[in-house]
Amino acid sequence: MPITEKFNLLNNRFRSFYPVVIDIETAGFNPQTDAVLEIALITLKMDKLGWLHKANTLHFHIKPFQGSIINSDAIAFNKIDPFNPLRGAISEKLAIESILETVQRGIQIENCRKSIVVAHNANFDHNFLMAAIQRVKIKQNPFHPFVTFDTASLSALVLGETVLAKACKAIGLSFDNNQAHSALYDTLQTANLFCELVNRWKKLGGWPINIKK
């Protein structure tokens, strides 16, 4: 395979990691005790010229798991009513199973070996995701246990911004503050931001790396 084609494959861009953009809305800050209320994810793909794009989207409203804590401050912040019957919420187990099935399929299609969480302030989402996977007793976890791609850190490096809304605006993306803190909207904006950051690095000549023959 020619070198240029090799570096236009997703599995060669991130050390065979399959990046998945995730945002999780919760009822608190403790992943072991506080309820997951909403999860959205967007998978990514790379075109034949090596540009990164959004692929598939999943979004779930989640029923609080049995015995979970609902913190009033968190609910006031994200404006989610966990017990509103119109949410169409499903169990945490069903949501996690669907997410992992989609991710496993993407890993196989892209010939990657492990998935990696892409998120804004990624440690938060990664911790809640890992806790939920453990809670529903799924052994085949496709996500890396500790490595993440944090768009807050990447934005600080490239744009001098760490807040999602400010980073999006700095790079030329629109951002509606009225839709913020919805898992689906924040995932969409994070995915747009991550793709733009990766593609901008390519435009600047940073990828593929200069290979000595």
From TrEMBL:
List residue numbers at the site (Important for substrate binding and specificity). Answer: 29, 77, 124, 146
The keyword Hydrolase belongs to this UniProt entry's keyword annotation: yes
Q: Where does Mg(2+) 2 bind?
A: 23, 25, 181, 186
Biological process terms from the Gene Ontology for this record are: DNA replication proofreading; tRNA processing
Q: Which cofactor does it need?
A: Mg(2+)
The cofactor note reads:
Binds two Mg(2+) per subunit. The active form of the enzyme binds two Mg(2+) ions in its active site. The first Mg(2+) forms only one salt bridge with the protein.
Q: Which residues form the active site?
A: 181
Q: Which domain of life is it from?
A: Bacteria
> Which Pfam families did the record assign?
RNase_T
Keywords assigned by UniProt, alphabetized: Exonuclease, Hydrolase, Magnesium, Metal-binding, Nuclease, tRNA processing
Q: Which residues form the Exonuclease domain?
A: 18-203
- Binding-site positions, Mg(2+) 1: 23
List the GO molecular function terms: 3'-5' exonuclease activity; magnesium ion binding; nucleic acid binding; RNA exonuclease activity, producing 5'-phosphomonoesters
Family of this protein: Belongs to the RNase T family.
Q: Give a short account of what the protein does.
A: Trims short 3' overhangs of a variety of RNA species, leaving a one or two nucleotide 3' overhang. Responsible for the end-turnover of tRNA: specifically removes the terminal AMP residue from uncharged tRNA (tRNA-C-C-A). Also appears to be involved in tRNA biosynthesis.
Recorded hits in HAMAP family, A to Z, give:
RNase_T (MF_00157)
Assembly mode: Homodimer.
Indicate what this protein is called per its UniProt record.
Ribonuclease T
Q: Origin organism of this chain?
A: Buchnera aphidicola (Aphis aurantii)
